[in-house]
Each structure stands twice: as C-alpha cells, then as structure tokens.
Amino acid sequence: MALFPVSEIMTTLKDSVSKAFRIRGEVNIDGSTLAEDPQTETDAIEGVLTFSENISTIEICNTSLVTGTFTVNGIAIPIKAGGVFKSTIGGTPATTVTVADATSYIVSRYV
C-alpha cells in the first residue's frame, strides 16, 4: 500500500474542485423549473385540475387528512395524507390531473 502526503492529496483535490467550478454556462436539469403557478383544490373543477401544457414532471403535495388518488397522464398515483410525490411521468401525455378522495392539495407542473 502506497502512502501519500496529505499536502499532495489536498493540492490534487483543490485543483480538481477548481476545474469543476470553471464550467461556464447554465445547468438546467429537466423537470427542475416550475412551468406555471401551482394549482390547489380551489382551482379544480369537479375534481380536475387543468394545466396549460402536457405534464411531463409533476409534484403533488397531499395536504388532506386522508389518502388521495391523483391520476396523471392516465396513471393513478395514491398519495398518503401529508405525503409528497415528485417525478417525471410517462403515460399518455395530458394537461389534466384528476383528484379523488383528497380535499386539500397543491399540484405543480415542471419542465
């Protein structure tokens, strides 16, 4: 096993970190930018929220006291009371989220 002086290891680490921070430009991760204002139960019409464009990444906060089922792109997602779900989502692209059982929630669409 080879031994390396701590000063050499620290110098190498410092150089590597410096290179990493010299990357120029903006990093944008898909699904990390809020696309529009979040919607709540007050925005729902007969249990359906409608966004301006198809949903590809979503965050759902179920603030109800009961488990709710949120159907996004044809996929039913049960979320426990007080639970949060955030993910990219497949299925059949759509602009709507259908909510069953939950009475209080916040739903956000990301791009």
Essential attributes:
about 110 residues; alpha+beta; 1 helix; 8 strands
Task: Report on this structure.
The chain is of the alpha+beta class. Helix content is 14%, strand content 33%. The chain has 1 helix and 8 strands; from the N terminus they run αββββββββ. The chain has one helix spanning 6-21; strands spanning 39-40, 48-50, 57-62, 68-72, 75-79, 84-88, 96-100, 105-110. The strands form 2 sheets. It has a 4-stranded antiparallel beta sheet with strand order 1-8-3-6, with no helix packed on it. The chain has a 4-stranded antiparallel beta sheet with strand order 2-7-4-5, with no helix packed on it. Strand 4 (68-72) and strand 5 form a beta hairpin. It is globular, with a radius of gyration of 21 Å. The model is unreliable at 17-28 (pLDDT under 50).
> What's the gyration radius in Å?
21 Å
Main sheet summary: 4 strands, antiparallel
Could you report the average pLDDT, rounded to the nearest whole number? 84
Tally of strands: 8
Helix content: 10-25%
Structural class of the secondary elements?
alpha+beta
Give the count of helical stretches.
Answer: 1
**Largest beta sheet: strand ordering:** 1-8-3-6
As a percent range, the share of strand residues is 25-35%
Shape: globular
Task: Give helix and strand order, one letter per element, not per position.
Answer: HEEEEEEEE
- Extract low-pLDDT stretches: 17-28
Terminal residue distance: 49 Å
